[in-house]
């Protein structure tokens, strides 16, 4: 089983190192690793954020463990050369259309949430985000208007097949959990969202056991703060999912706690923490590696079919938190390596 390690920029290498330590400690037969440069690090070394060697490795691998990309030194580059094109390129080239972002509050972190503990303790959901469409991949550019003004544009679009396949992932995820699905859109304003809602309703006919509800994205953002316990599975588009999943991360205490899986139709996936490269703390040992370690657990569960090892990692993270391990984002003083040590001690 080949794992592609793509650490990327900023704190990416630091958190990937800790996840690798945990995976090594499990002594899984046949698990091997290869590493490649992506993002700003790759651009500085090769002139491109997703070099051919890295893409080839990602295609050969059984799964990909990804750190983070983003480098202020690259902000002035043309868009197609910026570090973020590495992750967008991987999603496109590998057809990674379904992003699963679980958000569950560890009881030990109830006080770290921005919400009241009695509200935060209700959080146990999965956000299913479509990854290959929407404004991220639509036609975009800069142009001059008739009166000589600069105008930027980004086209949001989905076709019905794109909506149907992510809707099915949402329904299947709901079937494996509490059989409740909330589809989030902006159908009162956007034609794209009206199509989204129509296709989700059509797909619901194949999943009669699932209770389906619809919610506008602005209301959903409010409800995530007001009453997060009402959600079990949320399915939504690329832009809305990006925003809502980051909001959910703060509801559970820190963006450093949320893992994610980006899957193709055959369950091959790219696994990454949802946080960014955090260049302001890179190299200082302040990064929380738990989201990356939990992403490794998701990798074992979804792509490698090794749920028993995934269970061990998740239990070890909970045990480490129960023993008091806290990185600065959680109000503690543990370094990145010390957080890794705490998980290893709990395995």
Instruction: Tell me the radius of gyration.
Output: 20 Å
Strand sequence of the main sheet, in spatial order? 2-1-3-12-11-4-5-10-8-9
What is the average per-residue confidence, as pLDDT, rounded to a whole number? Answer: 94
Strand content: 15-25%
What does the main sheet amount to? 10 strands, mixed
In percent, how helical is the residue content? 25-40%
Provide an overview of this structure.
The strands form 2 sheets. The protein has a 10-stranded mixed β-sheet, sandwiched between helices. It has a two-stranded antiparallel ribbon with strand order 6-7. The protein is globular, with a radius of gyration of 20 Å. The longest helix has 16 residues. A hairpin with a 5-residue loop joins strand 6 and strand 7. The chain has 12 helices and 12 strands. Helix 11 crosses helix 12. By secondary structure, the chain is α/β, with parallel strands linked by helices.
Key structural traits:
single chain; 347 residues; alpha/beta; ten-stranded mixed sheet; two-stranded antiparallel sheet; 12 strands
Layout of SSEs?
Layout: E1 2-8, H1 12-25, E2 32-35, H2 39-46, H3 52-60, E3 63-68, H4 85-93, E4 98-104, H5 117-120, E5 124-130, E6 140-144, E7 150-154, H6 160-175, E8 180-185, H7 191-204, E9 211-216, H8 217-226, E10 233-236, H9 238-251, E11 259-263, E12 269-273, H10 290-302, H11 307-322, H12 336-346
Helix pairs in contact: 1-10, 1-12, 6-7, 8-9, 10-11, 11-12
């Amino acid at each position: 089983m080949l794992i592609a390690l793509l650490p990327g920029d900023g704190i990416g290498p630091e958190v990937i190192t800790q996840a690798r330590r945990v995976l090594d400690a499990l002594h899984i037969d046949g698990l091997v690793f290869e590493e490649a440069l992506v993002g700003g690090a790759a651009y500085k070394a090769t002139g491109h954020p997703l070099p051919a060697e890295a893409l080839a490795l990602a295609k050969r691998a059984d799964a990909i463990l990804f750190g983070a990309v983003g480098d202020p030194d690259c902000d002035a580059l043309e868009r197609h050369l910026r570090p973020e094109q590495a992750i967008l390129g991987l999603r496109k080239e590998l057809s990674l259309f379904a992003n699963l972002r679980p958000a569950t509050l560890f009881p030990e972190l109830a006080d770290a949430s921005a919400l009241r503990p009695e509200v935060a303790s209700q959080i146990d959901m999965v956000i299913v985000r479509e990854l290959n469409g929407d404004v991220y991949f639509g036609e975009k550019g800069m142009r001059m208007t008739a009166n000589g003004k600069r105008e930027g544009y980004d086209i949001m679009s989905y076709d019905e097949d794109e909506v149907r396949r992510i809707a099915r992932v949402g329904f299947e995820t709901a079937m494996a959990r509490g059989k409740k699905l909330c589809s989030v859109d902006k159908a009162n304003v956007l034609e794209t969202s009206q199509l989204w809602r129509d296709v989700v309703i059509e797909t619901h006919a194949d999943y009669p056991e699932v209770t389906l509800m619809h919610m506008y994205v602005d209301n959903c953002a409010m409800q995530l703060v007001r009453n997060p316990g009402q959600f079990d599975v949320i399915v939504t588009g690329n832009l809305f999912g990006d925003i809502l999943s980051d909001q959910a991360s703060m509801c559970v205490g820190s963006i450093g706690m949320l893992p994610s899986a980006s899957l193709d139709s055959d369950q091959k996936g790219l696994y990454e923490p949802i946080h960014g490269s955090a260049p302001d703390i890179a190299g200082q040992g302040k990064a929380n590696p738990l989201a990356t370690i939990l992403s490794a657990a998701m990798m074992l569960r979804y792509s490698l079919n090794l749920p028993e090892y995934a269970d061990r990692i998740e239990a070890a993270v909970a045990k480490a938190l129960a023993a008091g391990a806290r990185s600065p984002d959680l109000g503690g003083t543990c370094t990145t390596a010390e957080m890794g040590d705490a998980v290893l001690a709990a395995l």
